[in-house]
Amino acid sequence: MGCRRRCRAASFSLLALFALRALALELALNGARIRSISSAELSSLAGPVALPAQAARGAAAAGEASLVRGVSLGELYPLVAEAWRLEAKSASASRAWEDEGLGERLFELYLVEAPGGTWELRVGGERLGAAERLDLAAEVLAEDGAEFWVSWEGVAELKAEVARFAKAHGRSIKTVEVPNTQSKLVAVARGGGKLPDLVMIQSDYAPGLARMGLLQSVEYLRSPDLVDKGFEAFRSEGRYWALPFYFDAQLVFYRGSIAGPAPRPDWSLEELEARARALKGKVEHPLAWNLYSAYWLLPFAAGYGKAGILDPAGGMRADDEATARALDQLLKLRDEGLLEPAERDAMISWFASGKAAYILSGSYSIPEFERVGLDFGVAPYPVVAATGKPVAPMLDFKGLALSRRTARPILARRLAQYLTSAPVQARFTSSQSKLPASKAAWELSRGSNRYFEALSRSYEIGLVVPPSEAYAAYKNVMWKILRLVVTGQMRVREALATAQRLVDENLAE
Amino acid sequence: MKKHTARSLGTALLALAAWALSAQSAPQAVSGATPEAKWSIALAGARKDSLVESYYEKLYNAGAVTKTVERKGVKATYKGVPLSKIVAMVDGADSGPNYAFDEALWKAGYEITLVAKDGYAKTFSTKEVAPEALMVAVWADGKWIAPMTVGDTASGLWVKDLASIETSLAPNPALAAPAFSIEIEAGGATASFTLEELEASDLYLEGTGSYTTSAGTKYTNVYGGAKLLGLIERFTKLSAEDSVTFVAMDGYEMTYPGSQVLDQKDGTWILAFEMDGARIPKDPGYVRTVKVGPANPNIDGHNSVRMVRRLVVKQKDFKPFSLKLEGKMGFELDRATVQSCVSCHKRTVTYEAKGKTAVYTGFPAYLALGYVDDPKYAPHKQDKSLAAYDEAAAKAGYKVVFAAADGFKVTLDSRELNRNEDVIIAMYKDEAILPEGEFPLALAWDRGAKLVPAGIKGLRQLASIRAEF
Hints:
By secondary structure, chain A is α+β, with helices and mostly antiparallel strands.
């Protein structure tokens, strides 16, 4: 009896040990085992991952993705300079992938959690269930000691992500907050100082920094997971100068308790006007936004037929008919007492205090309003019924650019690949209510982001802030000219003609 | 640089040379294939050049090297030209065809950036890599390859499809700070100074300073620039009665009385061209006036002149004045404010009186009404989104009384002044400050004015404007 019990217990322990061993994954590099990871450990590292429909068994429809829990090989393996072969084995099968560019894809290859505590390897559309051993043929990256300049919102969260990457790979990476990365890069380069290896930029920084030879082009890093409009945001002289990281979109914000029911996503400008008219006398400013800025005017010009922000020759037209029509219409709303021109601070303060029912602001305002507990909703920009075209929100991308003079280009690239990978993008952008540049990260936020529909529609109809010095000149000139128009000191067409002359003069300098 | 033009001959020679080398050094066959396309590598250093196939062939024939390295777990043999032979083309000012490699300079250290056609770029310091460690190869295991760097270094320096080799010896004109000089006219002399000259001079000073805009926002920064008084005193002794006029790049003008420049109680006036360690961009720089010092002096925003291009010191001609404005609010505008108004809203009219014509410059008179037509709002005194001028009130009509210092008065109707650009408050006559008898300000109108307000008369020595509702 006692022996039977002991024997049973011993058999059970053996089985459990066998099961545990079977559930452990062995990672090898160039044929040599480097670590063994238990299923529990993998589970603790895993996060939500969206895999493309073709890779997902039984995905409902094209364009949709399956949401699973997984961890990328980029996070499990040491950083590599390059990798060219991956071999995977399960108890019953083995597969191998040979690809010269495998090193660039490690953050896109996942081990995903499968039933029974097993892990399935996903390589693009291919898979190997219950993986037990992976062997990567690769050269380990020797680079260390990188510097990364960060800016804009979410610096603390970004620093935490970089620290996580650095710790996981045993690297030293210094993250420095820089208020204006463009001017600091230029100043440091002029002074012969130490430049960063990786730097955050916005789209209109790209042409100048590229012309000065401070950035390296990143064609070789173009990933199908990153949205096309994001790459366009950093395209100058036929090359791409940064990996798109995240973006903000302009939205209509409304006070739920004042403005009434949420508008439909395909609503019209005329409907917005009618809603404002119905609020006249009930609220101080039915509509309020910054009418002095071209950044908020251009979407309306697009709605009235402006074909694109830049003209085909790369210049800016201020005196086109669509801009004039848009401005005429907005001034009519102002004259009717529906629209109150206001700069950001005044507008936000009216909105918060209930003096303004509808305002135009960027998605960056969402966390701010949520933090103060405001009852508000967001809607995508409406369509101009007369033209059938949408008032097209500006999409303001931030990107990760590699210094042309870096001694650690691959470490900088791996960090950029990590930061633009779907799980990191989903984590960072959801904490900041930004929009991720990664398509897979979009999928991850589909269910959890209550603004998803408005934000996706904004991306679909939005215009990218162009990476152009002409745009910067235009914006500055219009800032002065629009004030004269709004205060009645200049007539619309005369003002736009003057603006055009000044833009041309600026660009000719 | 000597260039071979017969490509086919050059390629054949190179193939022959490669075959010969290969035959000597390793028992492997040369494929005999020709490169798919002509190539060149841009070089930037003490001079600019490009390495073309024909010159590469010459270097190759004069001393090709072979290196066997392990890549992707496999040994491969590369043949090519030492990188140092190519860097020699741009590491000094010497001209070809036989460039001397400056080994001492290499060992002293400079940066080399290797750039691939796809944009990948890697930089290394020459101090950390032996001159002979890297080569630019075009053969790998007997087959043509696009030029790449390879050798006895970490593989990070092996750059395939090499497009350019850039060194830190190369001046980068795109990076150069814009050439900018500031002019000074003082004590009968005219001179100009570059920002570099001012920075290197004993006039250079750094300190903290602030300015507050008319809407109440205060900006504090660390500025660096040339001491204004010190600069002026290189040409003339400044007295309290003198004036210093700043002319901006966009035509804006502002005049300081000498007393203001001499007043150093709370800080030092400087012509600032650096802010927080970086050059100030064109707008609001390249030069702006600020006051700095340990006490963090705070000046009015309109006294911080932006984009200064020129300064003119005039001795003992600065006469302060003020213009009194009364109505729903009251203001007394000083000379600097009036001059600022002229700079921003400049209007020139041809005024005719008693058969004589003269050109008067000032600002449209209706703009002054913004100070007195509303009990709450006035120009530059609130959020910019609020209009300072009440056009509706002007259209409704009220009396505007212009009074001279001697008591002479002209009364006009606001409806005829509203948006009337042809009736001005003039500060200049024929481009000079108004003469004695008309100074400081005058009411004038264009002889071709579309609307000449009823009852208007020439008024000199304007002292006040009163709005009567």
